[in-house]
Amino acid sequence: xxxxxxxxxxxxxxxxxxxxxxxxxxxSLSYRDLEEIMLERGxxxxxxxxxxxxxxxxxxxxxxxxxxxxxxxxxxxxxxxxSIKVKKVWVYLYRAVDSQxxxxxxxxxxxxDGQAALRFFLKTLVASHTSLPRVSGARxxxxxx
Length: 145
Known about the structure:
single chain, 145 residues, alpha+beta, 19% strand, transposition, DDE_dom, DNA recombination
């Protein structure tokens, strides 16, 4: 996908695409609910499968672009692991929580092994490291020791 013009060659305007993707990710709306909301607002008819494709295409990019601007977390965080049933299949849910109870990241894994936990830890460390405010070199050395 072209990074300069991610909405190039799309039938709908970028505002409509971003609005649908944002509402789907932020609120517990179904694709058909969004289709109905867009129709009620007088916007062009948007099919629910089109919204599904937009979410699949643009949600990872939005996450990648917004994550560095999120509020920095504290240095103290915990990891919780539990098994849950998703669509009649048992999976393991790994969840990282900071000292104030805010969820930093989560990950589903079909297996419970060291490699799955290690992948989650590395992913969370990289994400929390990029969201932390930058510290000068001397303070950072003191903080790490």
